[in-house]
Specification:
With about 450 residues, the protein is mainly alpha-helical. It has 18 helices and 8 strands. Strands 3-4-5-6 form a 4-stranded mixed sheet. Helix 2 runs antiparallel to helix 4 and helix 4 runs antiparallel to helix 9. The longest helix is centred in the N-terminal third of the chain and has 31 residues. The termini are far apart.
Length: about 450
């Protein structure tokens, strides 16, 4: 027990008082600043939060390697290399006592940033649950980078080794992450993914074996008494690399939630949103309540506004997109409900694959009147005043549009429902002659 206690004492000292805690704190603060600066883009979506944390590996791995490199060169800077060489402990033990605390603190810094990000997302999350599949692997890869960097720091006698290693790591990871071709991108722990993708079940484990195998090989090749043992983790890394590169794009699949819709069928058209944002459905229905209220009793409407990836079905209109987060949808709320409603009205009008040449002045007047009736633009009068200062042709067109808006607004309820029913039937059929006159 005394021998074990004596062996653990240097490790505890390094972990508590050395450079290691500062390395972990640096990772935590760096990720905290980066995540806070882009909070509008991920806070409120579990998938977006997971992607932001995964993309942070592009920063944590080079930073971790630089931290390990700096720690690895510590004895040279202190000129105590010869003194350490006389220590009783073997080289591998001395290496691990110096390197592992930094690696563990870097992992702790990444884990702390992850926990804070999840806490920040939780109050605003509206659909699926936390996605933690990649977190252990990303943290492990960051820790492994410390070991590789530590070996480099022991070998390269330069104070510039750490910043140069960080720069090289960032550039290398960034270039392969952005590449659209080449097997190397599948070996990149910072491989860019989309919010709609999830990894196959074994991909995180294979990536951990790949990164851990390289780190283990570097450590054993440098510090082990029997350096041939480095071949064992290198063989494991090679096997994992072959598996990852041969699988290629099959490493990721589309999230099943992407194909699920949550709908509110109490209004017409029904309002449907992707299941990833199911909790936003009441707010979206409220934003469209003015439109659906005016469409009550109108026929020939699409069955629903759908929030699908790709084109809507024949009987659907496309719901204005909530993604990417940070634009029209931030922390579970629409930034401009009025604009959302006007875009939804535009989707009703453009239903169907109609050629552009079918547009004419009568259709344009009808579209303008419908838009202003269903979801008026607050600044429309300002736009009209600007157009009123144009040439005679623009003033005449403005007068016709204003007259059409007035006629639609002045109709009785039954007459307007009949007109709108005919209008939407003609728009769906791409029949300009069927658009009723105003």
């Amino acid at each position: 027990m005394n021998a074990m206690t004596q062996a653990a004492a240097p490790f505890r000292t390094e972990a508590r008082r050395g450079f290691a805690p500062w390395a972990g704190l640096t990772v935590l603060l760096t990720l905290g600043v980066l995540l806070a600066a882009s909070a509008d883009k991920w806070q409120g979506g579990w998938a977006e939060t997971a992607v932001q944390l995964h993309n942070a590996v592009l920063i944590t791995v080079p930073a971790a390697a630089a931290a390990g490199c700096w720690q690895g060169g510590r004895e040279r800077r202190r000129r105590t290399e010869e003194l350490w060489g006389t220590a009783v402990r073997p080289p591998l033990a001395r290496f691990l006592v110096s390197a592992l605390p930094t690696a563990l603190w870097v992992v702790a810094g990444y884990a702390g940033a992850t926990g804070l990000a999840l806490l920040a997302t939780w109050p605003y999350a509206l659909g699926d649950g936390p996605r933690l599949t990649l977190v252990p692997t990303d943290a492990f890869v960051s820790g492994a980078a410390v070991l590789v960097g530590h070996a480099v720091g022991r070998l390269v006698p330069s104070r510039l080794a750490a910043p140069l290693l960080a720069t090289a790591g960032y550039v290398g990871l960034g270039l392969t992450a952005a590449a659209h071709e080449g097997a190397g991108r599948y070996l990149n722990p910072a491989f860019s993914v989309m919010e709609t993708q999830v990894p196959v079940w074994w991909q995180p484990s294979a990536m951990a074996v790949w990164a851990g195998g390289l780190a283990g090989a570097a450590v054993l090749a440098y510090a082990a008494g029997r350096r041939w043992t480095a071949l064992l983790p290198l063989a494991a890394a090679t096997a994992a690399a072959v598996l990852l590169t041969q699988t290629g794009d099959g490493l990721w699949r589309t999230d099943p939630l992407v194909h699920r819709q949550m709908c509110d069928a109490s209004v017409t058209p029904a309002v449907c949103v992707n299941a990833r944002y199911a909790g936003a459905l009441p707010r979206l229905t409220e934003a469209l309540s003015g439109v659906t209220g005016r469409l009550e009793g109108v026929r020939n409407l699409p069955v629903r506004w759908a929030d699908r990836y790709g084109e809507p079905r024949e009987d659907e209109a496309q719901l204005p997109s909530l993604t990417p987060l940070g634009w029209s949808f931030v922390r579970g709320r629409l930034t401009d409900p009025g604009m959302f409603a006007r875009q939804a009205v535009g989707a009703l009008e453009l239903r169907g694959d109609c050629p552009d040449e079918l547009s004419d002045k009568r259709i344009d007047r009808a579209d303008d009147a419908v838009e202003n009736y269903l979801s008026p633009e607050p600044s429309q009068e300002d736009f009209d005043r600007l157009e009123a200062h144009g040439d005679a042709e623009h003033r005449a067109a403005l007068a016709e549009r204003r007259a059409a808006r007035a006629r639609l607004a002045a109709m009785s309820g039954a007459e307007r429902r009949s007109w709108l029913s005919a209008y939407f039937a003609a728009r769906a059929a791409c029949d300009p002659k069927g658009v009723p006159a105003l």
